[in-house]
Amino acid sequence: xxxxxxxxxxxxxxxxxxxxxxxxxxxxxxxxxxxxxxxxxxxxxxxxxxxxxxxxxxxxxxxxxxxxxxxxxxxxxxxxxxxxxxxxxxxxxxxxxxxxxxxxxxxxxxxxxxxxxxxxxxxxxxxxxxxxxxxxxxxxxxxxxxxxxxxxxxxxxxxxxxxxxxxxxxxxxxxxxxxxxxxxxxxxxxxxxxxxxxxxxxxxxxxxxxxxxxxxxxxxxxxxxxxxxxxxxxxxxxxxxxxxxxxxxxxxxxxxxxxxxxxxxxxxxxxxxxxxx
Length: 277
Hints:
This protein has helices spanning about 10-30, 60-95, 100-115, 115-130, 130-160, 160-170, 175-210, 220-230, 235-275. It has about 280 residues and is mostly helical. It is found in: Cell membrane. This is Peptide ABC transporter permease.
């Protein structure tokens, strides 16, 4: 596939994400994942060549703080979605095969959808305290029930095809059929869902941190930055705009990336499905 034939949404999402995450990674490595140095005499400095976005109430370079927070927020979102995808896919495949185990899995997924996400996060934080690990587990628990349902529906559309029956008649068990035939054919759907789930995970991470349920200070975080700087929305609006716009760029980038991947993968997947049927 040539670059000019790629979906425009895929290109736009890639540009937004790379434009944000490449400098974020560089700044994160430069500062070792920590917040910039405190410089009280230089606080509330206006934008300049030394401080492109100015400084915050502690005299820290705002651009460095926000970019480091963007890296941390994205890392937590990626780990959460990866965990939800792996666990949800496995359980969804079990649910697609039916039986008592399948019924138990789908019942648990329905129960998970009934609980408000913020309640799960609050329970985890109460149990082990505010931490990045608790935040990852909470966001992953948000996504597992939906991942189970999507995987089950996609797998069942493959399991009813004739070549699956032929594979079973040839002596292949459920695990072999799932690994060799089902999983490769539903992979495009899982990839698209994971990419769009990252946008929701970014919002969830920012929201949990804003409420004080995320990783504690001094680790930079976009949600906590918004919560800390919101009192300056009228006297120093740039303090609120910088992390807010960064969250918006990340969410928009992952949404566009997911839309582009869907457009890119749905046609080959549809052709493959027609040939199999």
